[in-house]
Design brief:
Strand content: 25-35%
Strand order of the largest sheet: 1-2
Length: 72
């Protein structure tokens, strides 16, 4: 048994629809400006700028319906 200074966080996971199973999440892959209205919201020209890709850490995962804390 390890002697952690701080207890380790639980493994982030997502529910698998239609089952009681969960899927362990290690990375979240995202696409930005992937449709014209979103590109315009971001101040981009959807006919000239391609979508871009980025990643978020598993700690960014929030269960469906959960409250996302947002600073005032």
């Amino acid at each position: 048994m390890s002697n952690f200074v701080f207890p380790p966080l639980a493994t982030p996971s997502a529910a698998v629809r239609g089952t009681d199973a969960r899927y362990a999440v290690s990375r979240i892959f995202c696409v930005g400006r992937n449709y014209a209205d979103h590109a315009r919201e971001m101040g981009a020209d959807p006919t000239r700028e391609p979508p871009f890709y980025f990643m978020k850490p598993a700690s960014a995962l929030t269960p469906s319906g959960a409250t996302v804390p947002y600073p005032t």
